[in-house]
Amino acid sequence: MGEASMGQMRVQITVDPLVAVFAVLYALAGSLWQWAAVFASLIVHEVAHAVVAAGFGLRVAEVRITPIGAAVRIDGGIELRAEAEAAVAMAGPMTSLVLAGASYILLTYGKPDIVKTEFFIGANVVLALLNLVPAYPLDGGRVLRALLAERMGTSRATRAAVGLSRWIGGLAILAGAVGAATGVMNPLAMAMGVLIWIEAGREARAAPYATMRSIMRKWAGLSGQGFVPAALVAAVPETRAGAVLGRLSGQEFGIVSVVGPNGREIGRLSEIELMDGVCARGPDVDLGTLVRSVRSMRGSKH
Fold it and tell me: What is the pLDDT of residue 97?
């Protein structure tokens, strides 16, 4: 375990002890270089996600290196920021294609080991194309949700993406089973379908809590100090809620003061209320509508 800097951010790096075990096993099997090529490609792919996330001001909590690559844990409610989620998700496949392209140029104009270079190119092309499939837990599934969230809000977009993921997973299971029975397809397709189906279900169960999970992470981290610093943002009623949400600090609890044409405050929205509104109504809902909705809900409780 160690730490690395990403801008002003400290990122925890954890290495699974099984990495060494896998290296020894593949070395004994005579396939160490193939495993190393795929392993390195996966790590670069995942680190690209982390770098872009940091560029959006999101907190990269951990980079965990495992025998099959790396996994990046990002805090800050990325699913509530469609443009950030799409960019972070696309960073992985695009980086894999860049690696494949650079290796092809080296193969064409240089004098590398042909067999190993061709394997590296193929591994990165497959990694990129596989991750562009619009299904969870692949990057394509997160890109799909981000695109849909711009029109229908995070909650409905997640349900739609999960539904498509289950269809893709079910078809992959069916195709893999038929292919394995007839000997025309590798049974790994069936295993991939099972993984997609399971992860889609996990995302569906987690989605309803995405808003509060992000808020509670921030609240817990700050309230542990005995107080909760807040950032006050002023905006006019016509401002898109999604635009304001994307500009709130990742460290301070946000409060939005909605100011009318006469310069007087017509209402305030906490970060929780703002996120709830975006999830329920989509990022294009204006602040004036949310203020009226929250005021109505508060009034109904008295």
Answer: 96
C-alpha to C-alpha distances, 206 to 162, 202, 233, nearest whole angstrom = 11, 6, 29
| Distance (Å) of CA 211 to CA 154, 246, 248, 255 | 9, 14, 14, 16
46 labelled catalytic = yes
98-114 residue pLDDT tens: 999 999 999 999 888 89
Residue 282 backbone zone (phi > 0: left; psi -120 to 50: alpha; other: beta):
left
| Phi, psi of 151, deg, nearest 5 | -105, -30
Instruction: Specify the pTM.
Output: 0.69
Pick from 245, 255, 253: nearest CA to 229:
253
User: Is the CB of residue 265 less than 8 Å from the CB of residue 243?
Assistant: no
Instruction: Give yes or no for a contact between 270 and 257, defined as CB atoms under 8 angstroms apart.
Output: no
pLDDT at 175: 87
Report the C-alpha gap between 281 and 273 in whole angstroms: 12
Structural domains for the chain: 1-132 (no CATH), 229-300 (3.10.580.10)
Query: Of these residues, 3, 46, 118, 150, which one is catalytic?
Result: 46
**Residue-wise pLDDT tens digits, 47-88:** 899 889 888 877 787 777 766 556 677 766 677 677 888 999
**Separation between Cα atoms, residue 102 and residue 121, nearest integer Å:** 9
Task: Give yes or no for a contact between 272 and 279, defined as CB atoms under 8 angstroms apart.
Answer: no
